[in-house]
Amino acid sequence: AAQQQSSKRGSLLSGVICINILILGCAMVCSSVFSPDAVSPVNVQILLSVLLLLTTAWMVYYMAYVARLDKAVLYKDGHAGPVWLRGGLVLFGVCSLIMDVFKIANYVGYMHCDSAVKIVFPAVQALFILVQVNHLPNGAVCLPLSCRCGLMLCLASNLIVWMTAVTEESQHQTVIPKSDHGNEGECNCSHTACSIFKEAYYYLYPFNIEYSLFASAMAYVMWKNVGRLVDQHAHHKHRFRLKGILVGPVVGVAMLVAGLATFVIYEVDMAMDDKEKKELALKIHYLMNTVAVSLMSVAALIGYAIYWLDKRDHVSEKNPTRSLDIGLLLGSSLGQFLICYFNMVAIVASSATDVLNALNLACSLLTIIQIILQNVFVIEGLHREPFNEDHEGHVFANPHALHSNQETHQPSTMRRSTSVVIITTGMHVPVTLGPCWKRRLLKEISIFLLLCNVILWIMPAFGARPQFDNELGFRFYDYSTWSAVVNIGLPFGIFYRMHSVASLFEVFLIT
Amino acid sequence: AAQQQSSKRGSLLSGVICINILILGCAMVCSSVFSPDAVSPVNVQILLSVLLLLTTAWMVYYMAYVARLDKAVLYKDGHAGPVWLRGGLVLFGVCSLIMDVFKIANYVGYMHCDSAVKIVFPAVQALFILVQVNHLPNGAVCLPLSCRCGLMLCLASNLIVWMTAVTEESQHQTVIPKSDHGNEGECNCSHTACSIFKEAYYYLYPFNIEYSLFASAMAYVMWKNVGRLVDQHAHHKHRFRLKGILVGPVVGVAMLVAGLATFVIYEVDMAMDDKEKKELALKIHYLMNTVAVSLMSVAALIGYAIYWLDKRDHVSEKNPTRSLDIGLLLGSSLGQFLICYFNMVAIVASSATDVLNALNLACSLLTIIQIILQNVFVIEGLHREPFNEDHEGHVFANPHALHSNQETHQPSTMRRSTSVVIITTGMHVPVTLGPCWKRRLLKEISIFLLLCNVILWIMPAFGARPQFDNELGFRFYDYSTWSAVVNIGLPFGIFYRMHSVASLFEVFLIT
Fold first, then answer.
1. Residue whose C-alpha is closest to residue B486's, from B166, B33, B159
2. pLDDT for the residue numbered A496
3. Do residues A158 and A125 touch, judged by C-beta distance below 8 A?
4. Interface contact A316-B1, CB threshold 8 A
């Protein structure tokens, strides 16, 4: 009880710290937008540098000192985040590092007339990213209180970096269409490569946004796991086998290839200045997406129907890791919802009736439906008992086990499960055949959904931005509003797709 | 397990409905701001009317039909929200009703040239408020699935009404300073009382915002409680007695009277056009607030120190009602944080050094500290075992009981409690006197904090808006940004103060 009490105190204290830093950061970012004279971006960067240095210091302290304590081993966090989260962190971290290098190279050119903070900040950020990528995935070694506070500091820093990046990116998007002539003012770059660096690092911004989001998610996961003793019973090892599963992978790979092809076409056409080509590329892109999400919706619906029929036991024990996973899945799907609804309202309200926007509308609507169905499918799948190979002989015993478990509940449930028993004892053949057939179909569906999510991840992650290329959003909403919506929503969307891939892989394994 | 499963499905389904309605509403409100030609406020009002009618229909259906089913009694929600929430709902509901009547009266004058929806919407809203005020506090009678969905529909509707009201209020605030001459366009009011009605209903807007927030909170509380069987063991009845408690109430009442006096002065001076008087009124207001929050901070700190010393048992059992209460308390305190941090950044960045803004800065900073300390105090207080009168004779037995309870824990804790035993067996007098003395002081502190929260609630709830009267915020941020921040933050702040009063009263009772 005393330990529980101190753990509660720790969460409260760290939560208070995090909230205060976050709101302060939010206020600073807002004022840098509305009163750039009073709060310049340089001020915000100073605040950020201090925060990042603090967090870095905490991480280094932990790695160097606390990790050596014997006691700390007890708290070693085995669940420091699933593989895909670590992988994403490294991938986007590397891109952010490159961005920082370009930024430094660019601002070195302005050093004679601009603030030195503009060089210091990317340098600090690069250091921070290096330390963080090494620290977070190794599994934090944690003494509850200071660990919680450190992780919350880390979370808050990452979220403020994220806010700043989103704001900068939105402002950048706002400026370009208005003034294409580079009026940088009186300060000129002293070396010739400036414009190249600048171009390059703006392309890398989305990766930095994504990186901050991943690091925040990871810090949050670790914070949730602090003080939770690692469950010692080994996980069931499930083998990854594709034996007997054919349709799902084949259709999935076909979608993947088709998606890659349209993605290449899209990127090539967008790079040209031909307006008709651009429109055609957009149409192809929307068509491809619409087809993909329609097929996925149907697949997820069939999968859910099978779960509905299937009498496999539900997992009854609480599993914090799973709850957290599902929470992240549901939370990150909000980003896509946001973009889709804003898109739909814009199309319907401006009553655009051309083919392009009809496709756009269909694509948005179906994406929403697809995400809902997929979430339901994944959640249902993760809540089933893993299918153990050695239990296959005992299929006949299962309905009775279910029956005796439920006897304590309401009579209506009992009556239904009784009827199931009657049916199964009546007809032997469908039952032995049943689970295998259902199981195979579920495996087909999850592998198909997995592959489709991969292509839906690749397209936005590597630069397809139909929301910006189609000018409707900009025309309908404000420039900065629309780019803020997309810049907030899209990183969550990318995160969602990666998370889905991981979850669907797990569903595949336990089916 | 099956019931738990179906309850999970219900929350998921209702959550999906709520999120979708909310994001759609958010997109509509945003487009009505940025593309008023394509999505006029009338469109938004049509959407809202449909939503409100749906919710009203659900509530009437439940009241008329489902409440009669015998089975439903099982699910009768005894915790349908604490008294202060119901009271707030009724109070703000009445004000919102008056606002709707004024709105209808005003738009009747424009009927010959404006959309009829502008009359229909307030009428629908009035009906909705009437039904809701009758329905929600009575304790929903609930069949899990449809009840969850209905409550989420209710929550979503209230939140969209809230968003719309905040947006309208912010736009209204933005327009006034720019164009004081009423260029209503070509449409003129057909009766003379129009301007009075208009003036009147704009004054009532804050109450409507507050009402929507209360109704949302109540719907959320009920949603959380759906399917939870009411715990049958009677609550400890604690008598409210002020015997022996003097300093807290006296200082508290003094603060209350002083607060009311400054509030009256503030309101009177603000109504005048004299600029110096206005500044003086602002100074008095800030000074009063600074003094109040300083005293409260000190009191909460002392209270927390006493809890730290006090060895009274912590409550170990989980209590969902309490967790929800604490969650709402922490969540609603964010509103005040938001305003304070934005205020502080504005003052520091614009380097305003006059007395007025120095007071403003001190007030913001101390308010943040006060809220944090008070939250900690309330949470600590709610987690203690109620002090039962009939146990008072057994004080000597307590340390031993504590001792044997903790023996299973770490040695360091045990050693400390052993030393307590030694001390208590050594000196008899301080122990019998000890708890009484601490208890009395805690009661003094909670009653003082309670009274101070009442005055801090009264001032913003009845119209003091120093954030708008002091022009710094408007000058520093955008007009609409600052009014959005205040209009979002302040209702949460008012909610927080009311909630604190209720929580402190509970702390007082169980101490």
1. B166
2. 92
3. no
4. yes
The first and second tokens of residue B265, run together, are: 């002065």
Token pair, residue A437, equals 């057939």
More confident residue, B216 or B1: B216
Residue B17 identity (one-letter amino acid): I
Please report the pLDDT score of residue A142 as a whole number: 59
Alpha carbon of residue B103 to chain centroid:
26
Facing B316 at nearest CB: one of A1, A24, A349: A1
B419: which 2 tokens?
């030393």
Decide: B28 and B44 in contact? Cβ < 8 Å. Answer: yes
- Provide the token pair at A28: 């600073």
Q: Which of B2, B345, B349 sits opposite A406 (nearest CB)?
A: B2
The dihedral sign for the CA sequence A20, A26, A29, A30: negative
Q: Are residues A489 and A339 in contact, defined by beta-carbon separation less than 8 angstroms?
A: yes
Residue pair B45/B287 in contact (Cβ under 8 Å)? The answer is no
Average pLDDT, chain B: 79
Lowest pLDDT segment from A16-20, A220-224, B101-105, B297-301: A220-224
What amino acid occupies position B383? H
Give dist(CA A171, CA A330) in Å, integer.
29
Q: What angle do CA A497, A500, A502 make, to 5 degrees?
A: 115
3-state secondary structure of A384: strand
b/e code B22-35 from CB counts within 10 Å (16+ = b): bbbbbbbbbbbbeb
pLDDT at B454: 92
Q: Is A361 on the interface with B (CB under 8 A)?
A: no
Residue with tokens 């603090």: A54
> Based on the number of CB atoms within 10 Å of its own CB, is A420 exposed (0-12), middle (13-18) or buried (19 or more)?
middle
Cα(A163)–Cα(A167) distance, rounded to whole angstroms?
6
DSSP for B463-504, please give it: T--HHHHSTHHHHHS-HHHHHHHHHHHHHHHHHHHHHHHHHH
Of A38, A345, A481, the CB nearest to B39: A345
For A369, A435, A496, B395, the CA distances from A298, given in Å and listed in that order, are 10, 21, 20, 68
Task: Give the angle subtended at the CA of B108 by the CAs of B103 and B111, to the nearest 5°.
Answer: 125
DSSP code string of A470-506 = STHHHHHS-HHHHHHHHHHHHHHHHHHHHHHHHHHHH
Q: Which two tokens stand for residue A22?
A: 């976050």
d(CA B61, CA B74): 18
More confident residue, A275 or A298: A298
Q: How far apart are CA A439 and CA A388, in angstroms?
A: 12
Shortest distance between the Cα of A34 and any Cα of chain B, in A, equals: 5
Beta-sheet strands, E only, within B55-128 = none
In this structure, what token pair is assigned to residue B14? Answer: 């209702």
Spatial separation of the C-alpha atoms in residues B404 and A29, rounded to whole Å: 54
Determine contact, residues B64/B478, Cβ cutoff 8 Å.
no
pLDDT classification of A141: cutoffs 50, 70, 90? low
- Per cent of chain B over pLDDT 90 is 24
Rounded Cα distance between A34 and B364, Å, is 21
- Secondary element (H or E) of residue A167: helix A144-178
Q: Which two tokens stand for residue B475?
A: 């000058």
Whether the complex's predicted ipTM is more than 0.90 is answered with: no
Distance (Å) from the alpha carbon of B46 to chain A's nearest alpha carbon: 14
Contact A325, A503 (CB under 8 A): yes
Nearest to B27 among A30, A43, A345 (CB): A345
Interface of B with A in 381-420 (CB under 8 A): 383, 405-406, 409, 413
| Chain A / chain B CB contacts < 8 angstroms | 121
User: Chain centroid to CA A437: how far?
Assistant: 33
* Of the listed ranges A43-52, A300-309, B57-66, B277-286, the one predicted with least confidence: B57-66
| Region A232-242 average pLDDT | 56
Q: Chain A: residue nearest B384 by CA?
A: A5
